[in-house]
Amino acid sequence: MADVQWPHRIAAQIDPIWDGLRADAEATARAEPALASFLHATVLAHDTLEHALAYHLSQKLGSESITGLSLRQTIDQAIHGEDDIGQLVRADLSAVFDRDPACNSYLEPFLYFKGFQALQAYRVAHWLWSNGRRALALYVQSRTSEVYGVDIHPAARIGRGILIDHATSVVVGETAVIEDEVSLLHGVTLGGTGKETGDRHPKVRRGALIGANATILGNIEIGQCSRVGAGSVVLRDVPPNTTVAGVPAKVVGEAGCERPALAMDQRFWEDPRV
């Protein structure tokens, strides 16, 4: 589903993700009356997914420094100032729904999954950064880190259909690149190796799967459809369609499937031929 091209401003009757999300919110409100007001304010009072997201993020990220109302105006500007953001949001929701066995509806990640929410907050910060509003972008980054425990620099470049599962303690550096259809688990670090400047962070290519607490350091490449085992420390390029693991990481075999990020299979067995 992550490959579907979604128009930015899409009519409700042809927006299956928004329709499904609203239907789940209505059903949940009937089943759990204590949540009815919350669901109405967060989902049912809005006419598009973009408006609902702007409201939800502003409520999460607002503070005494910048109120939720003021922040909502900024988030609205970002979401409606870039045609692709609506498509990216839907692709990310689809990624969570398709890949996370704990996810049973689009409503769940939208309301509760901090990986999805932190990623959308990054998208707002990235728009601000790209449009010369760097001070406010850094504020959104800081608030995102405080609220969700996820620290993504607003200058990082992140593609569509991304799953950040559980998400606690994920760190993505300034010059990092994450291409489309990548899956990351909690505790992943895409960092530098010291005080070097310039292009100094990892490039994660399409379809890669990065296991929990993996640390990837320096301007190195994690090849397309490769896998990095949980707890690994990666200091060198990883070839495409390859599994690496260990400290420091070494090749332990092939990726084991065509698209590891979609399969989410983190098991591996050492290949005695390697």
Please characterize this protein's 3D structure.
This protein is α/β, with parallel strands linked by helices. It folds into two domains: 1-149, Orthogonal Bundle (serine acetyltransferase, domain 1); 169-274, 3 Solenoid (UDP N-Acetylglucosamine Acyltransferase, domain 1). Helices cover 41% and strands 14% of the residues. The chain has nine helices and 15 strands. It has helices spanning 16-31, 36-44, 49-61, 68-81, 83-99, 107-112, 114-130, 134-148, 260-263; strands at 151-152, 157-158, 163-164, 171-172, 177-178, 183-184, 189-191, 203-204, 209-210, 215-217, 221-222, 227-228, 233-234, 242-245, 250-254. A six-stranded mixed β-sheet has the order 3-6-9-12-14-15. Strands 1-4-7-10-13 form a five-stranded parallel β-sheet. Helix 1 (16-31) packs antiparallel against helix 2 (36-44), helix 2 (36-44) packs across helix 3 and helix 4 packs across helix 7 (114-130). The two termini are 35 Å apart. 46% of the residues are buried.
What's the CATH topology label of the largest domain? serine acetyltransferase, domain 1
Q: What is the average per-residue confidence, as pLDDT, rounded to a whole number?
A: 92
Low-pLDDT runs of 5+ residues are 1-12
Q: What is the strand content?
A: 5-15%
The CATH H-level homologous superfamily of the largest domain: serine acetyltransferase, domain 1
Overall helicity: 40-55%
What general outline do the C-alpha atoms trace?
globular
CATH class of the largest domain: Mainly Alpha
Number of H- or I-type helical stretches: 9
Q: Give the N-to-C terminal Cα separation.
A: 35 Å
Over all CA atoms, what is the radius of gyration? 19 Å
What's the total count of β strands?
15
